[in-house]
Amino acid sequence: MDATLPSLAPALPELILAVGALVLVLVGAIRGERATPLVNGLALVVLALATVAVTLAPAESTFNGAFVLDGFARFMKLIAFIGAFAALLLSFDYMERLRFARFEYAILVVLATLGMALMISAHDLIALYLGLELQSLALYVIAAINRDDERSTEAGLKYFVLGALSSGMLLYGASLIYGSTGAVGFTEIAAALKGGEASLGLIFGVVFLISGFAFKVSAVPFHMWTPDVYEGAPTPITAFFASATKVAAMAMFVRAVAEALPEVTSEWRQVVVFVALASMALGSFAAIGQSNIKRLMAYSSIGHMGYALVGLAAGTPEGVRGVAIYLAIYLAMTLGAFACILSMRVGERYVENVSDLAGLSRTKPAMAFVLAMILFSLAGIPPLAGFFAKFYVFYAAVNAGLYPLAVAGFVLSVVGAFYYLRLVKIIYFDEPTVEFAPMTLAAKAVLTVAGGFTLLYFVYPAPLTAAAGAAAQSLF
């Protein structure tokens, strides 16, 4: 047995997040509630340092192959950390105004980000589950952090109960796969399946495993928690749920099926195709009648995860490249949209109804223009970034011979465009009912970067496309 210590260099970002979280706990414990502004600032520094560390850490595996930092992990961690940083930055003013700012919030975001990083780099089923639970436990508390708000408490409880169910399904699936292959490492599972026929136990294990993943990315039919949690949780926490956590969950999903189960692609593809179709359909139709903008964004998120899964269903490097590009663009669009939603404030009161956006073009023309462009991009209208996101996943599906899936995705994308265009109509053609307070500096910064990326991506798409292509190749 090898007695040497494993190399910690590939896990440098995780070490920074773990040590940073411990330091923040100490600062909070010593200074009490007075520590909130300091802890918030230090949490942003920790996330920024971890983001830089992702680019510096050596690309290799460690902990006996349970943890890997490859091109795919590096790409996904970068966008997940950027999403966590932006979501945390957007939350400070909101929590201060509603008087439930607590230093624990920033620490929980850092711990959830640590769990996300472990999920993205997990190279065996045990490491995957540990990362998933670390992230989930932090998110359960974050969802219910506003103890005085009944909706927030309800959101946390719903997420906890359904999350526990999904974790059990995932663990059961992992145990069936272990029972069928005698291995937990992704490379070892793939080797055990080579040349053999998939047993019934293995197929059940794969289905249960994918069911657990589908819950984490809020794909149909495991989406039931999403609209209630998005509406009930405080808005900046909803932004965090909709952006960074989705990226990490999808990265975990992609790595597990691409690296551990390439020999049974035809079996898991059937499940992924069904989940993708159902998610796109529900996201397109269920959002049409929504009057609360956070519920609308929840159904939009479900739909977009369906489109991302179209790329995964292809089961090729080209498909994974499409998923990576989709997630990067989705993150920018989501953060931009939530920067606007967090700016829907009348005096000290935050409003969430779609009708409150009426006449925004006359009261806040710059915000209205960028929000309209983000909505057009979410609908997939060229030449905005969202069009290219859908183009890459549909192109991969067509090349893999999944013509019905690509056609269905295109048709449902047209249906989904209806509710985005309805929002644009409300912004530009309805009479103003309220005037929002000025945007905070953090919201302006996030909206400028996200809006600029969404608008100008088509000018020079090569860097993102090349990085996503390299990330996909590292999995195959």
TrEMBL record:
Top-tier EC class: translocase
A GO CC term attached to the entry: endomembrane system
E.C. designation(s): 7.1.1.-
Transmembrane segments: 12-30, 37-59, 71-91, 103-120, 157-178, 198-217, 237-258, 270-289, 323-344, 365-389, 401-421, 441-460
GO MF annotation terms: NADH dehydrogenase (quinone) (non-electrogenic) activity; NADH dehydrogenase (ubiquinone) activity; quinone binding
Topology of this chain in the membrane: Multi-pass membrane protein
Listed InterPro entries: NADH-Q_OxRdtase_suN/2, ND/Mrp_TM
Domain NADH:quinone oxidoreductase/Mrp antiporter transmembrane: 122-415
Main location: membrane
Localization in the cell: Cell membrane; Endomembrane system; Membrane
GO BP annotations, alphabetical order: ATP synthesis coupled electron transport
Keyword terms, alphabetized: Cell membrane, Membrane, NAD, Quinone, Translocase, Transmembrane, Transmembrane helix, Transport, Ubiquinone
Catalytic activity: a quinone + NADH + 5 H(+)(in) = a quinol + NAD(+) + 4 H(+)(out)
UniProt cross-references to Pfam families, sorted A to Z: Proton_antipo_M (PF00361)
Subunit structure comment from the entry: NDH-1 is composed of 14 different subunits. Subunits NuoA, H, J, K, L, M, N constitute the membrane sector of the complex.
Its biological purpose: NDH-1 shuttles electrons from NADH, via FMN and iron-sulfur (Fe-S) centers, to quinones in the respiratory chain. The immediate electron acceptor for the enzyme in this species is believed to be ubiquinone. Couples the redox reaction to proton translocation (for every two electrons transferred, four hydrogen ions are translocated across the cytoplasmic membrane), and thus conserves the redox energy in a proton gradient.
PANTHER family in the record: NADH DEHYDROGENASE
Protein family according to the UniProt entry: Belongs to the complex I subunit 2 family.
The protein's name: NADH-quinone oxidoreductase subunit N
Organism: Methylopila jiangsuensis
